Amino acid sequence: MAACSSSRAVRSILLNCGKYSRTPRRPAHSLNPQLLYRHVCQSAAVWGKNLAAAGPEKFSEEYIKKQIEEFSIGKRHLANMMGEDPETFTQEDIDRSIAYLFPSGLFEKRARPVMKHPDIIFPKQSAIQWGEDGRPFNFLFYTGKQAYYSLMHEVFGKVLAIEKRQDRLRNEDTTDIKQISLTGSRWMLKEELEDLLVETMSDHDYSRFLQLMERLVALPYSSLEEEFVQRFRQQLGVQSSKQEIPALQHDEKGVAFCQANGRRKTASASITLRDCRSGNIMVNGKSYLQYFPILQDREQLMFPLHFVGMLGRFDVEAHVEGGGRSAQAGALRLAISRALLSFVSSGEMETMRQAGLLTSDPRVKERKKPGQAGARKKFTWKKR
Amino acid sequence: MFIFLLIEIFSRSVPQACHTDLHAGQYYTLPTAQLRTLFPHGLPYRFQMQIKTFNEACVMVRQPALELISYLKKADYSRPALRYILYGETGCGKTMSLCHALHFCATQGWMVLHIPDAHLWVKNCRELLPSSSRPGRLDQPLQASLWLKNFKTTNDRFLSKIKTTQRYVWTKRETTEEGRPLGELVDQGVARVKSSSDVVGALLRELRLQAGGAAEGAFRLAVAVDGVNALWGRTTLKKEDKSEVLPEELTLVHNLRKMLRNDWSGGAILTTLSHTGSLYKPRSAYLPMELLGEEGFDTMDPFVPVPVSSYTEKEFESCYLYYMDRHWLQHPHSQTEEGKKELIFLSNRNPSILERLCATL
Q1: Using H for helix, E for strand and C for coil, what is the string for B78-94?
Q2: What CA–CA distance (Å, rounded) separates A23 from B295?
Q3: Which of B341, B342, B350 is opposite residue A289, by nearest beta carbon?
Q4: Which of A95, A189, B47, B106 shows a CA-CA span of 20 to 30 A to A290?
């Protein structure tokens, strides 16, 4: 009994997640066999599809609802199979379990087996926009971009309402002027707006939308519409809260020290920063004056210590490998900045982050392309 | 505070022979007249430029030089000559300490035999003549004659007093008789460039024989060689058949090696190791064993090693105040405390690096 129920569960899971990896000869499923070959993707905007022009929906409402039910059932079966609690089975757990049950050697991550909520897998589609008699539901259907224009109308209606309110309340007292605070968030990008409206738009349309929203926000009494505006804004996380501070340790004599790593191009450095009062720096067993005869490299080493104002205080013992002289100096600089975080207050950490001391430089050597002499350099162009 | 330290920097009035540990870190001036006679070729190039800029030659009194001078004062000159080797990292002040010690010797009335850089004799030689006296050896007429000229400028007053002990035959028509003053020998070398290398050899032999004698005209001889590791390293010179020249095959080097043996008495041998001009040595080498090699170390052994290191905090302060006094540091930030800390970091208190850094400010 348990065996056959689990085999049913496995089959349902396989059918849910393996749609594109299945062969055409999959027996007896209630689905339209054509749909088995549908190329599943996360979001249509990523693929540059014109959603509105895709026509009436290929997947009907009931179909999507059924998929959602099957997904939740499959999730519970999967949780049971993995021996975990079905109530607290999150999407990360699902991903982990699928990767365990169906190990795939494919390099392209998007081609591997995936089991996600149908809302993510099936692209959002607009419902059929005209009735049986052929008349469209929305009065703006013949503009071509009905969602966009209806949104613009809505926003403008709100603007007019606020202006009317302003006129009414101008004669009375003006204590209630509150504006929406926009710090800590940004406007949605064009792609995100397209996703929301399930409709494509041009750059010009997008900029007009932003202008109208800015006008709305700039009006007094706009705090009434705050909820509406925040729907179109994305929150920005505070960067420095995600910074990891290396642990501060103490050795036998009570001297505080800290270890950190840093990388730049192909060079990797690991250092131990000790809080003695001497300013000795040893790199790979040699004095830093001998290891870096060029002034520029020593200036790079000096930068984090000088910025924090603790030049003569620390003792640095460094090991660095790989890369060239400039890359090694950059790697050491990053490692020293990271190690300094444990000796420095959070306000100074924020200034260090803004100075660019804590960002690892992502620039690497660009690949040489075939048909060209280098990464960008082309062969000599001959006219004939 | 600044004025107090300023007075402390310069110890002009104290005679040079009485420099003690109390004066460590302070600057003293070399009189310009003595400079031209004593050091026609001895001082480092950057220091010569500094003399021209500041119009004075100020040398810092440092611990290695003081140590060397104290040894010279206490040594017994009836015993064979002691060999002193100044060693340390590049740019720490070995040549300057050597010059300081030589100035001391000169003020004490010694005769100074200063070879400014032995590396110049083993590389970049345009003319290599086969030696006239010995078949296997090679002569370097230009270097030898130049050195003889400078030697004459330094030791003019001795040359008339010392007499030759042997008859030297240079060519069929030129000879130097026994008992002639050494000045004639030197003139012979300067005038007849072809035989100048042999003249140098003869001169060294005479000085070795006559140094520290009991007679009235007795003098003490200070042999100073900068870059002594050149004598036992490799050369970049090639013979006509493109084979490499060994240092022993050069007359000048051969005679100088004989000089550096401690079989004579009545003087001292002060030498410096130098990596800067050395050939085919790794950049991290600065110890005597590494730079001299097996052969050189065995020849120079036993010697008195004198290590020279970067500035201490006090010496750094002194140097910084000297530059401030001379208005050498023009950049406003370099005159602040923070700028000073930056200078300490960037130069790690190495004298030559600090000097180059300050020159750009």
Answers
A1: CCECEEEEEEECCCCCH
A2: 82
A3: B350
A4: B47
Q: Is the Cβ pair A312, B89 closer than 8 Å?
A: no
Question: What part of A 290-349 touches B (C-beta under 8 Å)?
Answer: 290, 295, 298-299, 302, 305-306, 311-312
Structure tokens at A233: 């804004």
Structure tokens that stand for A72 in this block: 């939740």
Amino acid in the structure at residue B269: I
CB A199 within 8 A of CB A126: yes
Any A CB within 8 A of B169 CB: no
Cβ of A298 within 8 Å of Cβ of B284? The answer is no
Cβ neighbours, 10 Å, residue A143: 12
Chain A residues with CB-CB distance to B347 below 8 A: 289
Q: In the structure encoding, which two tokens stand for residue A291, read together?
A: 């290891």
* Residue ranges in chain B modelled with pLDDT below 50: 1-7, 13
B353 contact residues in A (CB cutoff 8 A)? 289
Q: CB of B345 within 8 Å of any CB in chain A?
A: yes
The SS3 of residue A11 is helix
Q: Does domain B67-307 have CATH number 3.30.810?
A: no
CB contacts of A279 in chain B (<8 Å) are: 344-345
Q: Chain B window 297-316: which residues touch A at a Cβ cutoff of 8 Å?
A: none
Domains of chain A by range and CATH?
A: 61-121 (no CATH), 141-235 (no CATH), 249-355 (3.30.230.10)
Q: How far apart are alpha carbons B306 and B64 in whole angstroms?
A: 6
| Single-letter residue type at A371 | G
pLDDT digits (tens, 9 = 90+) for A26-71: 444 444 444 444 545 455 555 555 665 655 567 788 889 999 999 9
pLDDT digits (tens, 9 = 90+) for A263-308: 999 999 999 999 888 888 999 999 999 999 999 999 999 999 999 9
**Domain(s) of CATH 3.40.50: residues in chain B:** 67-307
Contact B342 A306 (CB under 8 A): yes
Reported as half-sphere exposure (CB side, CA atoms, 13 A), residue A121 has a value of: 20
Contact B348 A288 (CB under 8 A): yes
Q: Distance, in angstroms, between A311 CA and closest chain B CA?
A: 7
Residue in chain A lying closest to B339 (CA)? A306
